[in-house]
Recover the amino acids of this structure.
């Protein structure tokens, strides 16, 4: 199995040790359901751990397949404004009253990694970038979906402006709510991937990710980080808050 | 399996009830379907379409992320195994020989005979009700996989998703197809329990010794 689904991650994946630790923790945390028990009756706990390893390996395989399937030219369907879901649902790994408050005055977007101009950006500087907007469907990993309208600078324009290494593999994000995630470069450069500052034409409200979120209509909702405070470009697999717990990393739609 | 296939049905059915490829793919499919359904129930529970959730203890995966891992791993087993079965079924003539023809008259006749307890069971020969059920469940499997692909990749495969009425439509089709599949499996397994002598040949491929005809009903 190991060799068959060899990770396409260079240099030696720093995540693998971390992932193994998480695997173990997860496995201990989740009591085996009846379904799993029926499937594994007669197997020892070690076998169950190797089952977990196979599942993680299959998830890495699915990352690769999705990378191949991803067409950088293919646009997500767009909708008329009348199709927008009202009210648009709030969703995070915490409740709505725990949404972080970001001070617009003090805010600085930090840049790191394989980027030529790494000076931090203030909000007025970011807001001066060319803008576009689009009405697209946000699809949650849970299965529900909702249509919304986001506006901002095409992420590709921003990456070009800061001199990011566009041949690097990953773009990582850190957020004011301690969330973190990462995406593949191909998706980062997709024409519909936006560094979004507005929702429905208004400044992005705190619950939707003030001062900015990454809006990626070609990925599931949890791959769209809110309250972004740092962006870095890297060739080392950065993982993510949910991804490290078991959600598929690529999670493209 | 290796021997050239003929239309000589009676002779064939004594020697071999089910070809090896059919037996192997059938049982791999049974495992894959079980994993897909049980993990699918856990995924459904994360955002139910109806005012109903599946009992947590019946589901597979422990939490949404675990269930998704099972679902997206077993889908490869299901799809690849399904392709082997379909290719074999068409090329070997198994579908044409054992599933066709199926006519409305034959279905009505077989239902009538079954109700009167007079439907003979011959191992290796499916009655019209079985033929209909098996052909339908093959089509159902194709619908399940295609609607699943549409939910998985509603942007990359948006033309496919559009066939099902978009992302939300594909979710419903996928869910309803699962419900119908569960009904098939339920009836299918009940029929096997009612006619238990069909069970072993699905593993061994051989019809057991003894009279080949009886008045028992056949599994559908
Ligand atoms: C785990 C429970 C299952 C049992 C005990 C079982 C048993 C059997 C048996 C005994 C037969 C042969 C019937 C005969 O000779 O008259 C059969 C055939 C068949 N079963 Fe199942 N089965 C199971 C699950 C499934 C599932 C989950 C599916 C599909 C979703 C399925 C689809 C079929 C099909 C399509 C055939 C005809 C195969 C062919 O000849 O190509 N079965 N099954």
């Amino acid at each position: 199995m190991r060799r068959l689904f060899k990770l396409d991650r260079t240099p030696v994946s720093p995540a693998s040790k971390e992932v193994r630790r998480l695997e173990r923790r997860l496995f201990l945390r989740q009591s085996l359901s009846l379904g799993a028990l029926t499937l594994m009756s007669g197997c020892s706990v070690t076998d169950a751990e190797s089952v977990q390893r196979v599942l993680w390996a299959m998830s890495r395989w699915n990352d690769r397949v999705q990378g191949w399937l991803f067409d950088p030219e293919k646009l997500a369907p767009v909708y008329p404004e009348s199709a927008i879901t009202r009210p648009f649902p709030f969703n995070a790994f915490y409740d709505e009253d725990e949404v972080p408050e970001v001070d617009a005055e003090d805010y600085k977007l930090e840049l790191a990694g394989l980027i030529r101009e790494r000076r931090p950006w203030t909000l007025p500087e970011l807001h001066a970038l060319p803008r576009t907007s689009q009405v697209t469907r946000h699809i949650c990993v849970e299965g529900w979906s909702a249509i919304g309208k986001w506006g901002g600078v095409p992420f590709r324009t921003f990456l070009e402006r800061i001199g990011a290494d566009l041949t690097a593999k990953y773009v990582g994000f850190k957020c004011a709510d301690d969330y973190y995630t990462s995406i593949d470069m191909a998706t980062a450069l997709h024409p519909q991937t936006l560094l979004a500052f507005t929702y429905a034409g208004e400044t992005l409200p705190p619950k939707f990710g003030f001062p900015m979120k990454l809006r990626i209509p070609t990925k599931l909702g949890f791959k769209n980080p809110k309250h972004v405070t740092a962006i870095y470009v890297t060739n080392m697999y950065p993982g993510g808050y949910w991804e490290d717990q078991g959600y598929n990393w690529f999670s493209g739609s | 399996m290796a021997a050239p296939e003929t239309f000589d049905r009676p002779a064939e059915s004594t020697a071999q009830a089910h070809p090896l490829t059919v037996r192997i793919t059938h049982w791999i499919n049974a495992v894959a379907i079980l994993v897909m359904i049980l993990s699918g129930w856990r995924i459904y529970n994360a955002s139910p379409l109806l005012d109903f959730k599946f009992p947590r203890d019946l589901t597979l995966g422990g939490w949404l992320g675990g269930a998704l891992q099972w679902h997206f791993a077993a889908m490869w087993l299901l799809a690849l195994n399904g392709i082997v079965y379909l290719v074999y079924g068409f090329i070997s003539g198994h579908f044409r020989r054992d599933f066709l023809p199926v006519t409305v008259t034959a279905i009505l006749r077989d239902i009538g005979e079954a109700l009167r307890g007079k439907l003979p069971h011959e191992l290796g020969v499916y009655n019209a009700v079985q033929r209909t059920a098996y052909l339908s469940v093959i089509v159902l499997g194709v619908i399940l996989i295609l609607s699943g692909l549409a939910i998985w990749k509603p942007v990359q495969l948006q033309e496919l998703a559009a066939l099902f009425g978009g992302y939300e439509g594909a979710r419903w089709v996928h869910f309803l197809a699962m419900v119908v599949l569960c009904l098939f499996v339920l009836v299918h397994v009940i029929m096997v329990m009612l006619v238990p002598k069909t069970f072993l040949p699905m593993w061994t491929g051989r019809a057991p010794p003894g009279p080949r005809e009886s008045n028992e009903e056949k599994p559908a």
Observations:
- Chain A has two domains: 14-69, 81-245.
- The mean pLDDT of chain A is 85.
- Chain A touches chain B at residues 26, 30-36, 39, 54-56, 58-59, 62, 66, 69-71, 74-77, 137, 139-145, 217-218, 242, 245-248, 252-253 (CB under 8 Å).
